[in-house]
């Protein structure tokens, strides 16, 4: 017996010595690094950068880990109580390691096999694990990591207050779905700041910590509800709430306001655009100051000019208007034989290009399909899926402040996850939205609004006898410049183009910051050139801003998490690109286009009342529909069309006034109902001078006199564009030469 006792004693001493050696080996970094007190003091979370709207709403984040840090003062008392009651009841009594809990785990969990007794890790130990992670050492992994966490927990307790430990804990812990920290969790599951959480909401979030997938309230609501009630029970057990409160809260249903800004975001395309711009700015800052700020890790705060309310109204307009128009275009391609063939030919060509066998393309498989109610999984063939994709109406909308260039709303597409391509920068045929640029050129060249243009049928012989027509197929008589523009007449516009020096038009085009090269052909007058929504909004801003150009921008300020300003936008000096007189004429004419011309549906059907000028645009065969609405406070541009120009409406449903105008109209109508927002969009146009009013005082249309009709009997309907241009050039040379030089020569 003595031998056995002696042997047991020796074994115990050896085991104790081995344990001491093992602990010392861990302590002195034999099994990997153990963080020192200095390293723990200087510990820094990788934190997501936050993008804010003009009105301080979180639009989105850029991150490696989706974490937003919060301060202790932001935590509701009941949130702290819920955490302590559930995870570490003696948190405020121990110094990093709870010996009582460790012994409980040793005897109940390990020796008796009672798994319900819980774990022995304190919040400080869990924090140590969150801060430094765990390493792999085979069968020694668990003891090595546990000893590391105990050592680091004691060090954490020696350098941090309990409040700081709770703050660090809440900012490091994972809540599933790749989100870290209580602030990010509150935003994801309840769409609110942590400071606004209710008791039961705090209990839900604390409940997630036990198993962040199993107790995820979005994916497993029943499990989350059960765990929430356990947390509430623990709060009652440790006397943080009374039984009545605990029982009443446990009877409440689980209520979320789930807000995943990563997968579904009304500002998704805008965030992508801002990220590109912010990356350029941060790279420039780092290069200039020899710093190393990271957009994904350093918790920067990016303030933007976007108005979250206007953005919401715009996305609502997309959903309400385009969902109905989507059904109509699909219905058209189901019943129209010719268009059915066109769609089938397009799909056949794509299937061939994708190297898919035609029979295989007819086999039904489960696929996700875009609908305006959300993505739906359906059993559908590749062929039918491609048909749906080709008939989807894509659209974009951009709103700017013409005075500063600040972006106020930015909807780059119908779904930023499914269709990442940004429609704001897509180059599409301008159609009649080009016309004000031509008319502005005419005014810059000296013509007046009451200058009359022929509306007779013409043929351009150098262009295969091209015979342009008006949209309503009427002709005859004469239109004043203002009448032709506000009614968007094609024939008078072609005649104006024939009388305009191309180099002057090209110069105005460049001054308005368009990038594509103009082609000197008469069809240009009807908008056959391409441009983007971004460029059109920028150009029309010059009309709204009395001829002064601005540079669009979206980033107002970039700050560090501690409030150090790294970048602040400064408005650039404005440049005059058009005369005030020219823009006064254009603005007055396009206001009339809203009141009695092509844009009058804005008032009559949608009831928008703020001062507005506007222009519709419908490209050939209804392939693209445009609308621009503006005043001195705001410019809003929308465009709608399918990906392929071969797919389009075959009637007026595809016109600018029917397809694009409603997006702007519905957005502005809702904005008018918002008292604060209405103040920002109701800008009045500058009053006309007496001379400008006189120059605009004429009829839009008049019949030709008898003498004019008599002389027209001898005039050919064919027009030589080249001869017209030669005459213009000679006329311009004579102007530059002067009277005496023309009379006496050089």
Automatic annotation (TrEMBL):
GO terms for biological process: cell wall organization; peptidoglycan biosynthetic process; proteolysis; regulation of cell shape. It is found in: Cell membrane. It catalyses: [GlcNAc-(1->4)-Mur2Ac(oyl-L-Ala-gamma-D-Glu-L-Lys-D-Ala-D-Ala)](n)-di-trans,octa-cis-undecaprenyl diphosphate + beta-D-GlcNAc-(1->4)-Mur2Ac(oyl-L-Ala-gamma-D-Glu-L-Lys-D-Ala-D-Ala)-di-trans,octa-cis-undecaprenyl diphosphate = [GlcNAc-(1->4)-Mur2Ac(oyl-L-Ala-gamma-D-Glu-L-Lys-D-Ala-D-Ala)](n+1)-di-trans,octa-cis-undecaprenyl diphosphate + di-trans,octa-cis-undecaprenyl diphosphate + H(+); Preferential cleavage: (Ac)2-L-Lys-D-Ala-|-D-Ala. Also transpeptidation of peptidyl-alanyl moieties that are N-acyl substituents of D-alanine. GO terms for molecular function: penicillin binding; peptidoglycan glycosyltransferase activity; serine-type D-Ala-D-Ala carboxypeptidase activity. Keywords: Carboxypeptidase, Cell membrane, Cell shape, Cell wall biogenesis/degradation, Glycosyltransferase, Hydrolase, Membrane, Multifunctional enzyme, Peptidoglycan synthesis, Protease, Transferase. Its main location: membrane. Residues 59-236 form the Glycosyl transferase family domain. It comes from the Bacteria. Gene3D superfamilies: Biosynthetic peptidoglycan transglycosylase-like (1.10.3810.10), DD-peptidase/beta-lactamase superfamily (3.40.710.10). It holds the Pfam family Transpeptidase. The keyword Membrane applies. Pathway: Cell wall biogenesis; peptidoglycan biosynthesis. Residues 398-633 form the Penicillin-binding protein transpeptidase domain. One of its GO terms (cellular component) is plasma membrane. In the N-terminal section; belongs to the glycosyltransferase 51 family. In the C-terminal section; belongs to the transpeptidase family. This is Penicillin-binding protein 1A. It comes from Bizionia paragorgiae.
């Amino acid at each position: 017996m003595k031998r056995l006792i002696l042997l047991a004693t020796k074994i115990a001493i050896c085991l104790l010595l081995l344990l001491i050696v093992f602990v010392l080996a861990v302590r002195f970094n034999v099994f990997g690094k153990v963080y020192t007190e200095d390293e723990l003091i200087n510990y820094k979370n990788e934190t997501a950068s936050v993008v804010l709207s003009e009105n301080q709403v979180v639009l989105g984040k850029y991150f490696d880990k989706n974490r937003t840090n919060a301060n202790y003062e932001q935590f509701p008392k009941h949130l702290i109580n819920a955490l302590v009651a559930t995870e570490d009841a003696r948190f405020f009594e121990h110094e990093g390691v709870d010996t009582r809990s460790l012994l409980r785990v040793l005897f109940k969990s390990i020796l008796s096999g009672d798994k319900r007794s819980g774990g022995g890790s304190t919040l400080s130990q869990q924090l140590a694990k969150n801060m430094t992670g765990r390493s792999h050492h085979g069968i020694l992994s668990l003891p090595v990591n546990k000893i590391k966490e105990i050592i680091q927990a004691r060090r954490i307790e020696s350098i941090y207050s309990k409040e700081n430990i709770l703050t660090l804990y809440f900012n490091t812990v994972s809540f599933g779905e790749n989100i870290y920290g209580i602030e990010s969790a509150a935003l994801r599951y309840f769409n609110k700041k942590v400071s606004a959480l209710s008791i039961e909401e705090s209990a839900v979030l604390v409940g997630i910590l036990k198993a962040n997938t199993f107790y995820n309230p979005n994916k497993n609501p029943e499990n989350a509800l059960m765990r929430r009630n356990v947390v509430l029970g623990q709060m009652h057990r440790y006397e943080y709430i009374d039984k009545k409160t605990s029982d009443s809260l446990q009877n409440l249903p689980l209520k979320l306001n789930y807000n995943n800004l990563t997968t579904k975001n009304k500002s998704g395309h805008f965030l992508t655009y801002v990220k590109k711009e912010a990356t350029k700015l941060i790279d420039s800052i780092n290069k200039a100051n020899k710093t190393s700020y990271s957009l994904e890790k350093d918790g920067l705060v990016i303030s933007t000019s976007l108005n979250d309310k206007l953005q919401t109204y715009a996305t609502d307009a997309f959903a309400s208007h385009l969902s109905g128009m989507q059904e109509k275009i699909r219905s058209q391609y189901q019943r129209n034989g010719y268009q059915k063939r066109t769609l089938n030919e397009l799909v056949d060509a794509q299937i061939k290009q994708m190297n898919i066998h035609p029979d295989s393309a007819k086999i039904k498989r489960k696929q996700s399909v875009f609908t305006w109610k959300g993505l739906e999984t359906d059993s559908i063939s590749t062929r039918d899926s491609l048909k749906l994709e080709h008939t989807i109406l894509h659209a974009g909308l951009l709103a700017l402040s013409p005075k500063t260039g600040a972006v106020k709303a930015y909807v780059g597409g119908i779904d930023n996850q499914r269709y990442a391509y940004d429609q704001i920068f897509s180059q599409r045929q301008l159609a009649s939205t080009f016309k004000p640029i031509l008319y502005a050129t005419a005014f810059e060249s000296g013509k007046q609004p009451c200058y009359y243009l022929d509306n007779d049928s013409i043929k351009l012989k150098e262009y295969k006898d091209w015979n342009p027509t008006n949209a309503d197929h009427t002709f005859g008589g004469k239109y004043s410049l203002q009448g032709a523009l506000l009614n968007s007449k094609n024939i008078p516009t072609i005649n104006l183009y024939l009388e305009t020096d191309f180099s002057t038009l090209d110069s105005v085009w460049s001054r308005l910051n368009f990038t594509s090269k103009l082609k000197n052909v008469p069809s240009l007058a009807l908008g056959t050139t391409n441009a983007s929504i971004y460029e059109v909004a920028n150009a029309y801003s010059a009309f709204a801003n009395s001829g002064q150009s601005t540079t669009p921008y979206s980033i107002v300020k970039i700050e560090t998490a501690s409030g150090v300003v790294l970048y602040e936008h400064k408005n650039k000096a404005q440049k005059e690109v058009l005369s005030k007189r020219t823009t006064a004429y254009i603005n007055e004419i396009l206001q009339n286009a809203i009141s009695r011309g092509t844009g009058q549906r804005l008032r009559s059907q949608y009831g928008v009342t703020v001062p507005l000028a506007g222009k519709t645009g419908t490209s050939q065969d209804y392939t693209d529909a445009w609308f621009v609405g503006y005043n001195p406070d705001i410019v809003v541009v929308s465009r709608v069309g399918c990906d392929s120009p071969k797919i389009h409406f075959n009637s007026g449903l595809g016109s600018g006034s029917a397809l694009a105008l409603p997006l702007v109209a519905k957005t502005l109508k809702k904005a008018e109902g918002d008292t604060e927002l209405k103040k920002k969009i109701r800008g009045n146009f500058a009053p006309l001078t007496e001379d400008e009013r006189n120059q605009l005082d004429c009829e839009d249309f008049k019949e030709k006199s008898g003498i004019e009709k008599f002389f027209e009997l001898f005039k050919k309907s064919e027009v030589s564009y080249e001869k017209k241009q030669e005459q213009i050039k000679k006329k311009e040379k004579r102007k530059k030469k002067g009277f005496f030089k023309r009379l006496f020569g050089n």
